[in-house]
Amino acid sequence: MNGREVLRHYRQGKRNFSRTRVKNAALHGVDLRKIDLSWANLHSADLSETDLSGANLRGSDLRQADLTDTNLEGVDLRGANLYEAMVSRSQLDQAKSIDHMILPDGTRYGQ
Questions:
Q1: For 54-96, how does the pLDDT look when each residue is reduced to its tens digit (9 = 90+)?
Q2: How far apart are the first and last CA of the chain?
């Protein structure tokens, strides 16, 4: 599935994209509130300026993803891999849970 397909299905009301591999995830500046991307592969995704508030990203692969200015308020990031992702500490402070997450510098949070 690519980013356009995810967006099309999301706009049609689908919210569960758990375990989806999203190729060429160019989802810059879109509204994806309360989406379930748990255990999804979003490696190198462009999610900059996207509203992910209330989303489930538990266990997701966000390595090298661009999360610049992304709204992470209330997001479940438990176990997510954000190695080399572009995200600020203040954004992560907005998340609901970041236990056992791999931070952009490669350290594991909450162990």
A1: 999 999 999 999 999 999 999 999 999 999 999 999 999 999 9
A2: 33
